[in-house]
Automatic annotation (TrEMBL):
Positions of transmembrane segments: none
InterPro entries: MGD_biosynthesis_adapter, MobB_dom, P-loop_NTPase
Protein name: Molybdopterin-guanine dinucleotide biosynthesis protein MobB
UniProt cross-references to Pfam families, sorted A to Z: MobB
A molecular function GO annotation: GTP binding
GO biological process: Mo-molybdopterin cofactor biosynthetic process
Superkingdom field: Bacteria
Domain Molybdopterin-guanine dinucleotide biosynthesis protein B (MobB), residue spans: 6-127
SUPFAM superfamilies: P-loop containing nucleoside triphosphate hydrolases
Length: 173
C-alpha cells in the first residue's frame, strides 16, 4: 500500500516530460515534501546501465536484484520479465514519500498532467482518464482544444501553470 500522493506527467515521446519534471521538482523544492520520481522507459529494450560494474555482473550471474551502497548513495538493479506499476510504486514506498511523480505510464488511472507538443498529440486527450491539467507547447493548440475539454490548460512556458500544479500537489496530501 502506497501512502503518498501519486501524480503522472504524460505525453508522447519528445513532449518534454523529463524537462517538465525537473522544472516541477525545482518549483516544489521549498514545499518540504519528500518527493520520489518513477520514469517509464517506453522506448523499448532495457534502459542503459554500465555493464562492467559489479552490480550488473551479479545480475548476469543470476541475481534477481543487486543493491550497491556507497557514501550514502544507493543504487538498485533488479531484473524480471515485467514490473507492474504497482510493484514499482511499492518499492518506492520504502522511502515514505509524500509525493510520487510518475513520468509516463499514460494509461494508468492516476491524476495526471498531459503535455501536448503538436496538433497530432491532441488526440491523446480523448484517450486518457483523470487529466487534471494540460500543458501546451503552442498557444494555438491551447485555443483549439478548448472545445474538447474544460480541463485547466497552460502554456508550457507559463510560470503560472507550474505554480498552479505545485499548489495542487501540495494540497493533495
Amino acid at each position: 500500500m502506497v501512502d503518498a500522493t501519486i501524480f503522472q506527467i504524460v505525453g508522447y515521446q519528445n513532449s518534454g516530460k523529463t524537462t517538465f519534471i525537473k522544472r516541477m521538482l525545482s518549483q516544489l523544492q521549498q514545499s518540504n515534501l519528500s518527493i520520489v520520481t518513477l520514469k517509464h522507459h517506453g522506448h523499448g529494450g532495457k534502459p542503459d546501465f554500465q555493464e562492467e560494474k559489479d552490480s550488473h555482473q551479479h545480475l548476469k550471474a543470476g541475481a534477481v536484484a543487486s543493491l550497491v551502497e556507497g557514501d550514502g548513495h544507493l543504487l538498485l538493479h533488479a531484473e524480471k520479465s515485467h514490473w507492474s506499476l504497482e510493484e514499482k510504486l511499492h518499492l518506492l514506498s520504502y522511502f515514505r514519500p509524500d509525493l510520487i511523480l510518475i513520468e509516463g505510464h499514460k494509461r494508468e488511472p492516476y491524476p495526471k498532467a498531459v503535455l501536448i507538443r503538436t496538433q497530432a498529440d491532441v488526440e491523446i486527450l480523448l484517450k486518457l482518464d483523470n487529466i487534471r491539467v494540460i500543458f501546451y507547447w503552442d498557444e494555438k493548440l491551447l485555443e483549439a482544444s478548448k472545445n474538447m475539454t474544460d480541463i485547466k490548460g497552460f502554456s508550457i512556458n507559463d510560470p503560472a501553470g507550474y505554480e498552479w500544479l505545485a499548489n495542487y500537489l501540495q494540497f493533495k496530501k
